[in-house]
Structures are given as C-alpha cells and as structure tokens.
Amino acid sequence: MKKAGPDARWDRSLALIRENVTEQIYNTWFKPIDFVRYDEETKTVQVAVPSPFVYEYLEENFIDLLCKVMYHCFGTGTKLFYQVVTDKEHNLTQNIEADPTDALPKPQPKTRANQPPTMLDAAMPQLDPQLNPHLTFGNYIEGESNKLPRAVGLSIAEHPNTLQFNPMFIYGPSGCGKTHLVNAIGVHTKHLYPQKRVLYISARLFQVQFSNAVIQNHLNDFIAFYQTIDMLIVDDIQEWINSPKTQDTFFHIFNHLFKNGKRIILASDRPPVDLKGMPDRLLTRFSCGVIAPLEKPNRQLCIDILRSKICRDGLKIPDDVIAFIAQTASGSVRDLQGVVNSLMAYSIVYNSDINMQLAERVIKRAIKIDDRPLTIDDIMEKVCNHYNVTQAQVSSKSRKRDYVMARQVSMYLAQKYTKMPASRIGKLVGNRDHSTVIHSCAQVEKRLQVDRAFQAEIVSIENSFKLKDTAE
Hints:
The protein is an alpha/beta fold. The protein has 20 helices and 8 strands. The strands form 2 sheets. Strands 5-6-7-4-8 form a 5-stranded parallel sheet, sandwiched between helices. Strand 6 (about 230-235), helix 9 (about 245-260) and strand 7 form a beta-alpha-beta unit. GO terms for molecular function: ATP binding; DNA replication origin binding; lipid binding.
C-alpha cells in the first residue's frame, strides 16, 4: 500500500537526495537516517541518525542539499533536527564500568527556532563530567610550587572560550596536586558555564573505552562522541606511551577539538620532551599551548595544606606535630592527607590527644620510608624545603644570606650523614672546593654552640630524614 502523509514526503525527500548524490554516498550517509515524526504546528521534521559522526559529516558536506529538499517536500520554513541513536539495542560502551557516555543513545532533541535549516541541530545528551566536586580552587592552597599552574588554570576556567593557553599541559611528580588542579579547573568551569560539555577522564579509562569501541566496531561513534566535548581533561597521559593505536585516535580527537576552539587540558608525570614513545606530531601539539610544571610543595606550603585540612576536619593538632608531619611527608600532598586521616582515626579509636608520640607512630605506618642511605640530594632537598629556597639557588655563586645559610647547613649535614670526603661534597654543592666545605662546617658547629634557635632548626631538618637507616 502506498504511504501517505509525512512518511510519503520523507520518502520523496530521500528520492530527491538519491538523484543528486552517488549511490555509495546515499547508502553510506542518507540511507541510515530514520524518519521519526513530523509536527505540522511547528513545521519540524525529526529524524534519528546512528552517530554524531553522521550528523557532523552531513553538516559539513550536504547542508545546502538538505535545506532545498526539506523546503521542496515539506514546505518553506521547515526545520530539521535529529536524535543520536548509536545502537537501537545497546549503548556504545555497555561493558565499560562507570563510562561517561552512557547517556549517549537517548538525547533530548533541540530545535533552532526561527531559522531555516541551514544546519542540522545536534541534540546533545546530558553528560556526567566525571569530576570530583570536592577538588576545587577553594581548597587548592597556593604556594610557590603551584602559583603559575593555578593562575593559568583559574584563567582558563573563567574564560574557556578564549584561545589563550590551549592546550594546557600540566606535569609534575606523583602527589604534587595535578589531579586536584585539573579537577578544580573543570569544576569551576561547570559552575560558571553549566551548558559546557566538560569531561574528566584518566588516560587508562580512555584506553579501555577505545579498546572496547574497536572490539564492538563502534570506533567512529567513540571518536565522534569525544569530538562533542567543550573541555576535555585527560589525566596521566604518560599511560599512552608505546600505545600507537590509542595515540593515533587521540591525535584525531585533539585536532578536531583544537581546530574548533575547544579546551584541552592534559596532565602527566613528565614534560612532553620526556614522553619517549609518543610520536612527534602529538608532542608538538602538547607543547603548542602552555606547559605548566608543578613541583612538590615546600615545607611552608605543606604546613598551609595541613592547617587547611585540619581546619576543615575540625581537628586540633599542635604546631610542632604539624611541622613534623610537613617535614616527614616528603612533599607529597597525598602523604599529608593520609597522615592526618590516620591521626584522626587513631585519636578516635584510642580516645587520645594528637601529640608528637602519636604522630611518629602513625607516620611509620602511613608513609613508606625509603631505607636507602641518605644522599647529598636527599639532604639538600630537606634543607631547601626548610629555608624555602631552591637547589639551584644554593648551588649558585650568590652570597645572599638565605642561600649561604642553606649551603653551609647542607655541607654540614652531608659531612655528618654521608661518608663522602669534603672535596666530593663541595663538588656536589655548587662546585666548591674542600676548603669551603671545611669552613662551612666549622661555621655551623660554632653557631650550634651558642644559638638555641639554630639548634632547633638543625634538629627540625634532621627529623625530616631521621627515619632513614643512616640517620638512626
């Protein structure tokens, strides 16, 4: 029986399209489109397509043809919008746990009011950004080690539509706050721009999704989904080293997002130049925006982080215990948080106050202690943290008081805790000669005899590595 009404008009539309394109193009791009319904009052044709990729291709290559056909078959002023249905029976990532694309198959359609169908209107689904709402700028404490990345990240969150600082590549050692910062950027962006499609994902989960998409023959849908993101945040991208297929797929996603002015934020444990095993074409793209290094927090920032967490948790911890924890946690934010959580648990279970004795007991269980002998680098790191200077400053020729003090203390402690001769110590601490080392040690010992405050400083520094074998 011959169909009448809207279905017949849609059939005529397809017939006209078929006359104006090759058979291969018709079968590939137009035949998969399913007619859903036609609304006489709003003059709206609703159709379903198998993926956002199909919509994107049609929009880029056949807009004029679609516009003319819709006007001819349904009347002037007809609007066309569509639903993305990637699979009539299954979700794209049905076997991937906690996958953010679960909502993809059934979006809520939108229309472009009062405009002719010069463009197909993509009905984007609601997207769970996969962000941790507790990791915000409000509790991301600023210090010298994170000042630049924090400022750049906040600027991006407040002005996501600008092209400056894109992509943002954040790198630093484990425990320095990378995951907190990238989450804070995403959370603040969503707060200011709720309509933005923001997604945080670990590199490993991205790789799992990619593998499942290949197995299920849904790679085009996988790529097309990621191309709809306004701000894509990928953590721990060093996981993709020596994974060429994942790298190649992300390269195409990156290019699409970058070309369309979308935000890309990447985090790694090393800078792009050290990502051996990744192709140059990716590394050059990682480096074309802003590269923001994150360092381990120094002693003062560790103390500030501890005090902030203690205040939020409603705890009471003495200042000497806070200082001891800050020194012993080796500049790891995770270690700091773990120690405080453990102290709180011990205090509750044993109904005891938090004091130095309890702190020492907890730290031995909460923090992995390195049992290798102390090195010059170990000693200089702790001394620099204490005096809030860098190793480069200590090794420089500068005679600035703080640098000289840190330099002399480093030499003194190196002589005390290592078996190196003075000539070797001087070589490693700013390329000085052995006489400088002997003089520095004599100066420190002389001051220790008369200055109690200085004695306390040295003890404080020694406490930071006293759990190592050679210091016990």
